[in-house]
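Example for tutorial group B:
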């Protein structure tokens, strides 16, 4: 396949994907794993996405991953589906509007739960419910989670050999609304209505907003020094200040997420951020038990996905 044919194939794949997703605007993200940074282009129209195809292909060719998500929609992303689960979606009343094969036998499904757009908190609750029902990764249910852009290659290290696979549009049903969509929306609304201000509604808003509340913490250590004791002291003080400010609304997981964003924004390596939060987040052993480091890793991965700083 020559360069012109490859470009044409990528362009057609992106056109199919955004036609199925049918959003007025999109967030597009380019992840550089070697530097642990993510560039974001927010509120791009479909036309802007298509005009950027040469730049996106170049970034991908340089070893970077490219992701996309709708800005306002009724779409819910279900990640990490195997072939069997994809084939069962119709029977489960979850007909997807789009399925992208991200690597052999691994898929992402975008499920439209209503004809009209739904609030972020509603979509987050639905994503978590579907992940639990289908047995997929609950760490990938936040609305800050992106889907892969079709037509470009998957640059995860485990897919490097013999050659990185290309994300492909497997199924496309533009405008399709899942049969269980309305029931899922109503169940999510009930769950949110029954939650206390300390519960799901508040957490959804804090985790899923494009600009979560900033930490009411003391200044970052002088020179953004990453020495372990300075980091430990800063994390502890950030939690202490948040607890004083928010009182009963204090949520340690939300503060950990904001700490991760601050550290990533300072240029720290992802592995160092994971280690710092896993070691120094207050009471993490009691809160998360043997899953403490897995929790820290998921928290940092979410923070990386929404980080807009190099």
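The residue assignment follows.
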């Amino acid at each position: 396949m020559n360069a012109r044919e490859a470009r044409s194939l990528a362009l057609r794949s992106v056109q199919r994907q955004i036609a199925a997703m049918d959003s007025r605007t999109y967030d597009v993200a380019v992840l550089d794993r070697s530097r642990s940074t993510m560039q974001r282009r927010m509120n791009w129209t479909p036309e802007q996405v298509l005009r950027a195809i040469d730049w996106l292909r170049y970034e991908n060719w340089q070893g970077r991953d490219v992701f996309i998500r709708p800005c306002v929609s009724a779409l819910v992303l279900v990640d990490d589906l195997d072939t069997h689960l994809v084939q069962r979606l119709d029977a489960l009343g979850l007909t997807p509007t789009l399925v992208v094969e991200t690597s052999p036998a691994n898929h992402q499904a975008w499920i439209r739960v209503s004809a009209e757009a739904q609030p972020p908190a509603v979509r987050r609750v639905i994503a978590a419910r579907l992940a639990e029902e289908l047995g997929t990764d609950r760490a990938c249910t936040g609305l800050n989670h992106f889907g892969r852009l079709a037509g470009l290659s998957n640059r995860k290290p485990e897919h490097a050999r013999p050659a990185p696979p290309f994300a492909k549009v497997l199924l496309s049903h533009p405008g399709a609304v899942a049969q269980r969509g309305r029931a899922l929306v109503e169940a999510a609304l009930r769950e949110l209505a029954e939650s206390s201000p300390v519960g799901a509604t508040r957490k959804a808003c804090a985790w899923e907003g494009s600009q979560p509340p900033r930490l009411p913490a003391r200044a970052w250590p002088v020179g953004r020094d990453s020495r372990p004791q300075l980091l430990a002291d800063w994390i502890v003080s950030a939690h202490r200040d948040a607890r004083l400010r928010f009182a009963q609304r204090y949520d340690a997981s939300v503060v950990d997420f904001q700490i991760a964003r601050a550290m990533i924004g300072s240029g720290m390596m992802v592995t160092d951020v994971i280690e710092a939060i896993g070691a120094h987040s207050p009471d993490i052993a009691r809160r998360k038990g043997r899953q403490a480091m897995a929790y820290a890793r998921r928290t940092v991965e979410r923070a990386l996905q929404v980080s807009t700083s190099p």
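The mean pLDDT is 81. Compare this with the pattern of hydrophobic and polar residues in the output above.
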